[in-house]
Design goal:
4 strands, about 75% helix, two-stranded antiparallel sheet, two-stranded antiparallel ribbon
């Protein structure tokens, strides 16, 4: 297993090297300039739209439901365990690069949400399918269909072996074990390793419960997410803000330390460059893992939203990155740095975050802190399992031309992976996720660059119409017909989809 982990680490270091970091970060910067800093100018409007659904919009779920489905996939163990892993490996400076990626990533996420709705397809039964595979095929043209297929394939892999299953169930079971059996007093031998009975029970319970929701499909996932996601976010934020306010005297020094580490100011010579690169790599990788900007996952959920305005849904989708990275991930990162627990030898994953909250909230019994954190992590991970199952299914539908029988097999394979995840090592799990994330991001970023002109045109048109109507959506002019740049390929996609449905049943 150690040799396998070393191989994965070597692959990960190559994939997540300077080229991909530059592609994603510069992509966000490019889109920010192309959209004239839209994420700064319209953040207030975007947050307003988050809780205000569009009337008479076409789609499968409300805009808020689509956002919660996307949030259920992004607000996961990456916000607790992933950020801890980044700070432990890359130092406090990783937080700075995570923030930078999030700021520019909001423009990326806006573009994804807009294009998802603009180029989505809908059959006669009202079933929506959209995301990078369709804005690549319909937006860039049929000759790029191979790139859309590549995205769909890697999307399935991320769901099955990355964000959707292994990382989430592994982190949940580790948190359960850390609370109920931290000393590993009751163990069993599984797959040649010693595991706590708490790990086994926690993993089995989560896998079975997730399976019951997954079988219900998108609407059950969206309904569950709308109720659970807002509640779990509020609980974690209250918990985190309490820690920060209790240790508010350490905040200035913490922020200074983050900036110093981000630019290698505590190292010299060659070590300075190495420190910066490691901090950038870990901050960007874990930041993208947490908010998924540029990955192409969120537009799959955004495409199902009941809306007639692509730009409006782009604004709603953009808030996901702001809430996830700028707010939630920052809470975890600040807790780690303020308590100086990220450097404790032997601690990894959820254990680092648990130690930080115990140290930062000394007036609470350690058992209470561990229990609250365990519940937050379990809910975060569970909702991510559900969200990524939906993403994986949509990728499967596209890749295999809507094969209904194969989709059922995929669902059971996904659930099977949940049973395996608890028995993998933390480092191997997160490294696998990083590798597939990178492979998924490349096709999506190529499409965002290629279609940036379409994105800018649609955004300017929407904001100009809204301005003329003095902010009143109901008084806005109808959205102009854009048949010359997207209706024809979309019509062909409809016909193709109907043929596939008839062939595959």
């Amino acid at each position: 297993m150690e040799e396998f982990t070393n191989i994965l680490t070597a692959i990960d270091s190559v994939i997540w090297g300077p080229p991909l970091i530059a592609l994603i970060l510069l992509g966000g910067i490019f889109l920010t300039f192309r959209l004239r800093g839209l994420q700064f100018r319209t953040l207030g409007l975007a947050l307003k739209y988050t809780f205000k659904n569009e009337e008479d919009g076409k789609g499968e779920v409300t805009s808020f439901g689509a956002l919660c489905t996307a949030m259920s996939a992004t607000v996961g163990t990456g916000n607790i365990v992933g950020i801890a892993t980044a700070v432990v490996a890359g130092g406090p400076g990783a937080l700075f690069w995570m923030w930078l990626a999030a700021i520019f990533g909001m423009a990326t996420k806006f573009s994804e949400g807009l294009l998802a709705v603009k180029f989505r397809t809908m059959d006669k039964k009202g079933h929506v399918l959209g995301g990078p595979f369709y804005y690549i095929e319909n937006g860039m043209g049929q000759k790029w269909r191979w790139l859309a297929k590549a995205f769909a394939f890697f999307g399935m892999c991320v769901a099955l072996f990355g964000m959707g299953t292994f990382t989430q169930i592994n982190s949940i079971s580790s948190a359960v074990t850390g609370f109920f059996d931290p000393a590993m007093s009751h163990t069993v031998n599984i797959l040649g390793g010693e595991f706590s009975i708490a790990t086994v029970i926690g993993g089995l319970f989560t896998a079975v419960l997730a399976g019951l929701v997954i079988i219900g499909g998108l609407k059950r996932i969206a309904t569950f997410s709308e109720k659970v996601v807002p509640a779990m976010v509020v609980v974690f934020l209250v918990f985190s803000f309490t820690l920060i306010f209790y240790n508010i005297d350490k905040l200035p020094a913490t922020l200074l330390l983050i900036v110093q580490h981000a630019f290698g100011l505590q190292a010299f010579g060659a070590g300075m460059f190495g420190a910066i690169l490691i901090a950038m790599q870990m901050g960007l990788a874990r930041g993208i893992f947490a908010n998924e900007a540029g990955l192409g996952s969120a537009p799959i959920a955004a495409a199902a939203a009941k809306t007639n305005e692509p730009a409006r849904q782009g604004l709603v989708t953009m808030t996901q990155t702001f809430i996830d990275s700028i707010i939630i991930c920052s809470m975890t990162g600040l807790a780690l740095v303020m308590t100086n627990t990220y450097g404790i030898p032997g601690l990894e994953g959820a254990a680092v975050t648990n130690a930080a909250f115990q140290a930062g909230l000394p007036f609470l019994p350690p058992e209470v802190v561990s229990f609250i954190l365990m519940v937050c992590l379990a809910l975060f991970g569970f909702t991510t399992i559900l969200g990524w199952n939906y993403y994986g299914e949509r990728c499967f539908e596209y890749f295999f031309n809507r094969n209904a029988r194969g989709l059922k097999i995929y669902r059971w394979l996904y659930i099977l992976c949940l049973f395996v995840g608890p028995y993998m090592t933390v480092s191997a799990v997160w490294t696998i996720a990083d590798i597939f994330n990178a492979c998924m991001a490349v096709p999506n970023m190529i499409a965002l660059f290629a279609l940036s002109g379409v994105t800018a045109k649609e955004a300017y048109n929407y904001l100009n119409r809204l301005k003329k109507a003095k902010g009143n959506e109901k008084a806005m002019e109808p959205r102009p017909d854009d048949s010359d740049d997207w209706k024809t390929p979309k019509k062909a996609a409809y016909q193709k989809m109907e043929e596939q449905i008839q062939r595959n049943g």
